[in-house]
Amino acid sequence: MKTAAEYLQNHVFEARRPRRELQPVVAYEAAVQAIDQALADAEKYKYLLMRALRRHADETAPAPRPAVSAAASFFADDTPVLPLYPTPERLAA
């Protein structure tokens, strides 16, 4: 990632204030352009970082286990399961 000085590197010129030495100066338009470029780069880096984090999370995620309810482990395997409501075939009979 660039530093703030690197964004302004091409836009800096030197100007002399009355009775003083030369000082670095940046035009307002150049500063706005540098800020826009920095924000665009930040969005790009944010996108790349989030993509890398998602990819890493997918690689390190454990394999999904089948869902088991607490009631299913309470009953034995040979316990019959009966419907609560009669089916239409049973009502017709």
From TrEMBL:
Instruction: Tell me where on the tree of life, at the top rank, the source sits.
Output: Bacteria
The name this protein goes by in its record: Uncharacterized protein
What organism does the record attribute this protein to?
Hymenobacter aranciens
